[in-house]
Design brief:
Blueprint lengths: L1 E7 L6 H14 L4 E4 L2 E2 L2 E4 L2 E4 H10 L5 H4 L2 E2 L4 H6 L7 H10 L6 E5 L14 H8 L3 E6 L3 H16 L4 E9 L7 H10 L5 E6 L2 H4 L3 H8 L2 E4 L10 E4 L4 H5 L6 E6 L3 H13 L25 E7 L6 H9 L3 E4 L4 H10 L9 H14 L2 H7 L1 E2 L4
Parallel strand pairs: 1-7, 1-8, 2-7, 3-6, 8-9, 9-10, 12-13, 13-14, 14-15
Antiparallel strand pairs: 1-16, 4-5, 11-15
């Protein structure tokens, strides 16, 4: 069995994206493929069994037959860390991980996914670097777009893996603006090579892979639903803050934009409603209400996806009715605009089995931009060092 440890330089870098693509490539090669998340921090109950969300995702997407306790052997629930430090956790957790790993011995390849950066889990003796060393698995590190930042992050994480005796198979840089940065791949390749790290490939930035859906927004801001809109699974294309004159606001609204605006800014709200309901040149001042904007202010496609109404200010019934007639997503929250915008910015986007469009795009992107045979060649046979 060949195996590979997939790590990242931090949260939301694209590790799950890479994992989905790797597994898809292995399966397309006709290999008996397994997946393991040794230490899980986002645990849910599936069929009465606790398991990490990523283990459940991979099992569902690829119809993997392996039992969840093997795919997700150790979980870190709330309060576990304090209990461990206090000496109240007496179970041999590394032994549980080794036993789970051994159940995959009849597979051709096993992808082992870590949690966060190389040091995550050190507080309970199960950092990614320590677990990779425990299992003798070479590591691939995933970072995100840029030049200095990804190289710095990858080098930092590589140092901890190497300190534990883990072989570094290479790195992947995700969310790269390839069109806007000619030559970026070669630059990253050279920069990492200076530190003895191979660049295994880059993945281009795609909003659908990085941005939350309206349903995730609703859950994340804990808002009251004013109107759900046509599709809570719609992915937002960007965020605009409604803190300016309506005409200027329209310049910042593109397709799929989520507008965060105080609930008492009816001028901005009506402008967004008008742009979304009627679109572009058919609008006139009457349609836009007090904004009093002419058709020239609206470019084609200037249609927002939804509204987050802040400050606890509920618009007048006529405005709420206009939102519903336009079938525009809207939620009301008590917090002010800044903390709400911060929540939306920091919202962790996870992939779920029902995200079929997103999963299909991930598979296609990885197949196009990463060499799966090269990834496989980086995998070490279990037991070899």
């Amino acid at each position: 069995m060949r195996h590979l440890y997939l790590a990242a330089t931090g949260q939301n870098r694209g590790k799950t994206t890479a994992a989905l693509g790797f597994l898809d490539g292995f399966v397309r090669e006709g290999l008996v493929t397994g997946f393991m998340k040794p230490v899980g921090q986002r645990t849910v109950i599936q069929d009465g069994v606790p398991a990490d969300e990523d283990a459940i995702l991979m099992r569902a997407v690829f119809d993997l037959p392996d039992p969840l306790p093997a795919m997700s052997p150790v979980h870190i629930p709330r309060g576990f860390t304090k209990a461990y430090i206090a000496g109240d956790v007496v179970e041999d957790l590394p032994a549980r991980i080794r036993a789970a790993h051994a159940t995959f011995a009849d597979h051709d390849v096993l992808l082992v996914e870590g949690t966060g950066h190389a040091g995550v889990g050190a507080v309970v003796g199960l950092s990614n670097a320590a677990v990779a060393a425990l299992l003798g698995v070479p590591a691939v590190i995933v970072s995100e777009g840029g030049v200095g930042r990804p190289i710095d992050e990858i080098v930092l994480n590589a140092s901890l893996f190497r300190a534990h005796g883990v072989r570094l198979a290479g790195a992947i840089v995700n969310k790269v603006e390839l069109d806007a940065q000619p030559g970026i791949v070669r630059t990253l390749e050279r920069g990492l090579a200076l530190h003895g790290i191979a660049l295994l490939g880059v993945l281009p930035y795609r909003p659908i892979l990085s941005n939350p859906t309206l349903g995730m927004i609703l859950e994340g801001v804990h808002g009251e639903t004013i109107h759900p809109g046509p599709d809570l699974d719609a992915v937002i294309g960007g965020v605009a803050i409604g803190a300016m004159e309506p005409g200027h606001m329209l310049e910042r609204i593109g397709p799929q934009t989520l507008v965060i605006v105080p609930g008492d800014r009816e001028d901005v709200i009506r402008t967004v409603i008008g742009a979304s309901a009627l679109g572009a040149s058919s609008l006139g001042p009457a349609a836009l209400g007090p904004a009093a904007l002419g058709p020239a202010a609206l470019g084609p496609g200037r249609a927002a996806l939804g509204l987050v109404l802040t400050g606890g200010y509920r618009p007048r019934p006529a405005v709420v009715e206009a939102i519903r007639r336009a079938d525009l997503f809207a939620t009301l929250v008590a917090e002010d605009t800044y903390p709400v915008a911060s929540k939306v910015h920091d919202l962790l986007v996870k992939t779920h089995p029902a995200d079929r469009e997103k999963i299909a795009l991930i598979k296609a992107l990885v197949a196009e931009h990463l060499d799966i045979d090269r990834i496989l060649s980086a995998a070490t046979v279990a037991g070899a060092r």
